[in-house]
Design a protein that fits this description.
Length: 205
């Protein structure tokens, strides 16, 4: 007789990194009420079967595990937004509750040089940024909080945190064709010939 697999009923708490210590973008999370991870790249929306297959083929299944977890995390789960505190510790900038399903937002295609189009909306609460013991440095940009000390600290910060006001998420940028760009530039003082030269230079960037 095959025994059913044990289902982990422990309430999930996640941890998400917002930068590498040199380039941090946690302020974007708090401004728009989101959490974001990469890589976004050319493969697009991770919900689509063919895109998911392309991600896994290029990056490998292990490196895509944070994306799998990010997509499947439940609404209502807690998540701690962490940033480096010294060389070995992590501080909680905010604790939040996931409030939306996964979405792919092209508007976040360049956040401090990172492609972070994978998006979940989060009801953040700002906290003091003392280090939390048990927040791991590994696990990629998104993973579970397992250490019981860290889980207790995260729950306490959620109860005591202050909720900021969020700006609306900007709309995705409109994609224009080469000709549309030339036509737009041509109506300025530069003239059509110069407009074509400028457009060609922009497209080579």
């Amino acid at each position: 007789m095959i025994k059913p697999k044990h289902e982990d009923m422990t309430p999930k708490i996640w941890q998400v990194k917002a930068g590498d210590g040199g380039r941090d973008y946690w302020d974007v999370f708090l401004r728009f009420g989101v959490m974001l991870i990469g890589p976004g790249t050319k493969y697009g929306d991770y919900r689509l079967k063919q895109n998911k297959k392309a991600y896994r083929k290029y990056y490998g299944a292990k490196k895509c595990r944070p994306l799998d977890q990010f997509e499947k995390a439940d609404e209502g789960d807690l998540v701690v937004l962490k940033c480096p505190k010294g060389e070995t510790k992590w501080a909680a900038v905010a604790v939040g509750k996931i409030t939306s399903e996964y979405d792919f937002k092209s508007v976040f295609g360049d956040v401090e040089g990172f492609q972070l189009q994978h998006c979940r909306q989060v009801d953040w609460r700002r906290t003091s940024d003392e280090p939390i013991l048990g927040l791991g440095r590994g696990g990629g940009y998104f993973c579970r909080v397992i250490d019981e000390r860290a889980r207790k600290a995260v729950n306490k910060k959620w109860d005591n945190g202050k909720e900021p006001e969020f700006d609306p998420i900007p709309p995705d940028p409109e994609i224009v064709s080469d000709e549309e760009l030339v036509d737009f530039l041509a109506v300025t003082d530069c003239g059509r010939r110069n407009a074509k030269l400028i457009a060609d230079a922009v497209l080579r960037l």
